UniProtKB/TrEMBL annotation, chain A:
<keyword id="KW-0411">Iron-sulfur</keyword>
<keyword id="KW-0408">Iron</keyword>
<comment type="function">
    <text>Ferredoxins are iron-sulfur proteins that transfer electrons in a wide variety of metabolic reactions.</text>
</comment>
<protein>
    <recommendedName>
        <fullName>Ferredoxin</fullName>
    </recommendedName>
</protein>
<keyword id="KW-0479">Metal-binding</keyword>
<dbReference type="Pfam" id="PF13370">
    <property type="entry name" value="Fer4_13"/>
</dbReference>
<dbReference type="InterPro" id="IPR001080">
    <property type="entry name" value="3Fe4S_ferredoxin"/>
</dbReference>
<keyword id="KW-0249">Electron transport</keyword>
<keyword id="KW-0003">3Fe-4S</keyword>
Automatic annotation (TrEMBL), chain B:
<dbReference type="InterPro" id="IPR028202">
    <property type="entry name" value="Reductase_C"/>
</dbReference>
<dbReference type="InterPro" id="IPR016156">
    <property type="entry name" value="FAD/NAD-linked_Rdtase_dimer_sf"/>
</dbReference>
<dbReference type="InterPro" id="IPR023753">
    <property type="entry name" value="FAD/NAD-binding_dom"/>
</dbReference>
<keyword id="KW-0274">FAD</keyword>
<dbReference type="InterPro" id="IPR036188">
    <property type="entry name" value="FAD/NAD-bd_sf"/>
</dbReference>
<dbReference type="InterPro" id="IPR050446">
    <property type="entry name" value="FAD-oxidoreductase/Apoptosis"/>
</dbReference>
<dbReference type="Pfam" id="PF07992">
    <property type="entry name" value="Pyr_redox_2"/>
</dbReference>
<feature type="domain" description="FAD/NAD(P)-binding">
    <location>
        <begin position="4"/>
        <end position="280"/>
    </location>
</feature>
<keyword id="KW-0560">Oxidoreductase</keyword>
């Protein structure tokens, strides 16, 4: 599974961080970082993260 | 008749409900009925990027999971009545749909003071208001209502160069959810950027190109925006003996008054949050349609397929944000339940600040105001807030270390 975040669109809401903390995190300055190829076992959490992003910045590619 | 679930309301709540019905194992028909002609779109950008003109209307359309590609969308004609005994809903265009299960997702509409003032709820409203505000430079805007929508419209209109006056009978903007200290800090940020506030004042008359207040003040107005709260869209449910006094009353599994075949989601649903207490409340936050849809879909699919509802009572952790002048207000939990005991957790009210709201000395909500760092710092309280709530056993104040008491 590949995760792509459109960082132009992302406004660092951090909602994704709570849905899938193994994949997304905010650094000290509030900027988003993420794991681009997370383990398949995290699919549900990643899809949830894509749902809760208010900017729809997260895409899950197979 | 093959099995069918009808979802009434085709916005965030309706879409998420359809997706979650599939995720909960519903493979039969799903029909989504929507009053607006548009496929589901995202409302938060309407008062921000769409009103500012920096986002195209197309960019706000909500993405859909592939699992709902076979859902049937009936758009442009609202449901006008429903018969819950017969399980049939009738649309304004005369179409009647039988159903096995029903999802109520009809949201809210703005309360109105006049017939011709602007309101902001739909994409069409946002485009119309953007056009009015940019028709000529220095447009004079009067915003009636200093709640969340009024404040965002004021902020965006200042960015567009409009001359902005805001009127509200309350003493501070957004004071209900934020409490006095943070509301005062928000007011300062607006005033520093040139918005003028007439607080503790009501409008007595709307006249041509002006608005008259109860103290005699006359505000010139090329454009008037009414941002005075909303009304739940529940008229179509009349005649079924339901309590529709403030949205649709739900039980702890989002069933409409305990009915096994009907659930409600999103802004229209009035539900108890087991995290806090047993009082049913409506919650107008973007996070709630997604949370309610997930729980309600499981409830409905279980009961339609004869399975037991085996999930704990609904207990979401609400989150809310607002963007004003490039600063973010980020709320987690239920600050409005803790406005009697407000403490600054980090920072100070003139800069980036994080404020804690307590009920019976327990932290029930946190709000951050400021730049991205403040949002990130606010997010760190999420763990604490998700532990408090139901298991309100630890003193949040001492767990969080230092805090300053305000308002002595
Ligand atoms: C301008 C604006 C800005 C916002 N910004 C934020 C923000 O920054 N942060 C945040 O947390 N929240 C924000 N919100 C709140 C958030 O958008 C709502 O909580 C969310 O849209 C609720 O979704 P919903 O699907 O429950 O209701 P709605 O989005 O109101 O959808 C209900 C749908 O049902 C349709 N409908 C009504 N009656 C019928 C009928 N009889 N038959 C068929 N269809 C019907 C309506 O036309 C509508 O399309 C904002 C809201 C607005 C209006
Ligand atoms: S939720 Fe969306 S906007 Fe927020 S940090 Fe994650 S990707 Fe960015």
């Amino acid at each position: 599974m590949r995760v792509v975040v459109d960082l132009e669109t992302c406004q660092d809401h951090g909602q994704c961080v709570f849905a899938a903390p193994e994949v997304f995190h905010l650094d000290e300055n509030g900027k988003l970082g993420y794991v681009p190829e997370p383990d398949e076992s995290l699919r549900d959490a990643v899809e949830e993260a894509a749902d809760v992003c208010p900017l729809q910045a997260i895409r899950v590619e197979d | 008749m093959p099995a069918r679930i009808v979802v009434v309301g085709a916005s965030l709540g309706g879409l998420r409900a359809a997706e979650q019905l599939r995720a909960a194992g519903w493979t039969a028909e799903i029909v989504v009925v929507g009053a607006e002609p548009h496929m589901p779109y995202n409302r938060p950008p309407l008062s921000k990027e769409v009103l500012a003109g920096t986002a195209l209307a197309g960019s706000v359309m909500l993405r859909q999971r592939p699992s709902v590609a076979d859902a049937v969308w009936l758009l442009g004609s609202p449901a006008s009545t429903v018969d819950l005994d017969a399980r049939a809903v009738t649309l304004a265009d005369g179409t009647t749909l039988d159903f096995d299960g029903l999802v109520v997702a009809t949201g809210l509409r703005p309360r109105r003071l006049t017939d011709d003032g602007h309101v902001l709820r739909t994409l069409d409203d946002a485009i119309r208001l953007h056009t009015a505000l940019t028709a000529r430079p220095g447009t004079r805007l009067v915003v009636v209502g200093a709640g969340f929508v009024g404040c965002e419209v004021a902020a965006t209109a200042r960015r567009l160069g409009a001359d902005v006056a805001v009127v509200d009978p309350l003493p501070l903007p957004m004071v209900g959810p934020l409490g006095e200290q943070l509301a005062a800090a928000l007011l300062t940020r607006h005033e520093e950027r040139g918005a003028r506030f007439h607080l503790g004042r009501t409008v007595t008359r709307f006249e041509r190109h002006q608005v008259v207040l109860d103290d005699g003040t006359v505000l010139p107005a090329d454009v008037v925006v009414e941002a005075v709260g909303s009304r739940p869209n529940t008229e179509w449910l009349n005649g079924n003996g339901l309590d529709l006094s403030d949205g649709v009353l739900c039980d702890e599994h989002l069933r409409v008054e305990g009915l096994p075949f009907a659930v409600a989601v999103g802004d229209v649903a009035r539900f108890p949050n087991a995290r806090y207490d047993s009082t049913p409340r409506r919650v107008e936050h973007w996070s709630i349609p997604g949370d309610t849809a997930k729980h309600a879909a499981r409830t409905l699919v279980a009961s339609l397929t004869g399975a037991a509802v085996d999930q704990p009572a609904f207990a979401p952790l609400p989150t809310f944000w607002s963007d004003q002048y490039g600063q973010r207000l980020q709320a987690i939990g239920a600050p409005q339940l803790g406005t009697d005991d407000i403490r600054i957790l980090e920072g100070d009210l003139h800069g980036d600040v994080i404020v804690g709201y307590h009920r019976d000395s327990r932290l029930v909500g946190v709000v951050g105001l400021g730049r991205a760092r403040a949002t990130a710092a606010t997010a760190r309280y999420r763990m604490v807030l998700s532990e408090t709530g139901k298991r309100i056993a630890t003193d949040a104040g001492s767990r969080l270390g230092h805090h300053t008491r305000l308002g002595q």
